[in-house]
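Listing 4. Sequential folding, example run.
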Amino acid sequence: MSVTENVDANVERSRKEAYFTASQGQLIWTRFKKQRAAMIGALVLALLVLSGLFAPFLTPYDPTIVGRDKDYQNGAPQIPRLWDENGFSLRPFLYTYERTRSIKTNFRWVTEVNKDKRRYVVLFPQGDKYTFLGVTFRTHLFGVNEGKIHLFGTDATGKDIFSRTFHAINTSLAVGTIGVLIAFVLALVIGGVSGYYGGWIDSVLQMITDAVRTIPAIPLFMALAAFIPDVWSAETRFFFISIILGFIGWPTLARRVRTHLLTERNQEYVLAAQLCGASPGHVIRRHLLPSFTSYIIVDLIISFPYMVLSETALSFIGLGLKEPVNSLGVMLQNVTKADVLLNYQWNFIPVIFFIALVLAFVYVGDGLRDAADPYADIKK
């Protein structure tokens, strides 16, 4: 045997040893890395999540109050540039926008561009206060030395769409996280008890599960919207919507948990644990649920986009979150106006982020589902 063949044989032997000694998490990660779409989705999702978490630092203004620019309402996106007909600049700059009254417009306010007066982009300026992890900061990633900068333009009230978009991503993800966690706990408890005990307990719990599944979401939220008092703060409405989404989102996962436990509860390792005196809760928590942890994780990832879609849809039709809360659904309300469709198309920019967020979750969830399949071939 040649040296090359010997090396190849050793590599193959090492690969097989690593495969047979790898943990479940390592096997899932190995399969997941081989899926290009899932890896791209994971990268996009990580960037969006981080941009939402660090939105106060990444954005130049408070999206609700301080970011208002009364002199630049419904303003177009301002793209920094390095050169123009007046010459080249080492620092990115913007033109100055001035509002004047013109006889041509019957003395109404009009916005004019002053190309001779440049405003330069600066990094890490001191600006609006924000709190992160209980600590107050004033440093932002970028700004301008004079006036304001609006990379995505402004809306009808003069608020910065760039700042609103990144804060909206954080809000929508927070709603989805709370909803998924509530649904996850309820699904594990109800599905675990139903699948482990069976009998009349299973019948009663399945009747409750079927009753929750048959509740129509839109009429339910219409009734809740009429019930919510107008004096509720934005934070109270936020948690209320999150809790309701969680309470109606658990039946699907509960059914899957129940089905798995019904097939696994008579296995030998479960009987051994019961003979050793383990309580039902201990058996479910330490033996049955860990036996399909990967499927639970995949289900959680796949549930996220549906929670985000639910919040966005409800806010879009006016039944969910409302101003001054920044969420993707609240921002999408603006794009339904005819004036926006015809004249202010930059209001559609948050739609791009919403589509990217949902698609990233879908691709990651599909990739994890395939990677968690125990019958998948590691060589593929």
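-- end of first protein; second protein begins --
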Amino acid sequence: MKILVCISKTPDTTAKIAFTDNNTKFDTNGVQWIINPYDEWYSLVRAIELKEADASTVIHLVNVGSADADPIIRKALALGGDEAIRVNADSQDSFYIASQIAEVAKQGGYDLIFTGKETIDYNGSSIGGMLAELLDLPYVSLATKFELSGSKATISREIEGGEEICEADLPLVVSCQKGVAEQRIPNMRGIMAARTKPLKVVEPVAADALTTVASFGLPPAKAGVKLVDPENVDELVRLLHEEAKAI
């Protein structure tokens, strides 16, 4: 079985967020980059678990990005990917990215494609659905459990008020979230092996970007804490009526 795991480079959750060029570009100065947690902790680790259950399984990684994504790709290889493909393009447009991954998938003949449910920077949650449509494959989103028996997958996903269990035949596309697998840390053997694992760079295919960024904006600064004397009930009531509801 061949599995393709989509990985993305995102800012560390502790990174200070700022914008440049009249708030149209993210300021990357001083930013620490990581593998998108939904891609690393859940989709990649579940693929590794499937390989551990069937040694004939091959895991390929795909990333759409420039050369500065190579360190996070190497980390993913250290976790357990067999080889990686980086499409040499820098875009934040979901359709453009999905189009590039679809081309890689068509060339590779994969049985299963995993994505994280979303990236933690844009939270778009759109790549998986677009990818499945471009490949004309079934798509199950927000998986919390994934089991495989032969060529049939059983997938659990959370829905309003309960859980939905889906069955689908391979090949298919699945987006993963918390519950599918548990986070792993690369060991020294994996880190050393990752240095020599193949990382193939390919040029992008022609595809349209359907969105542009008009501007970014930071959320409003949090208001300071107001302390109210426990004896001053009237003031507390006034603050709750006039100010708390506006926060």
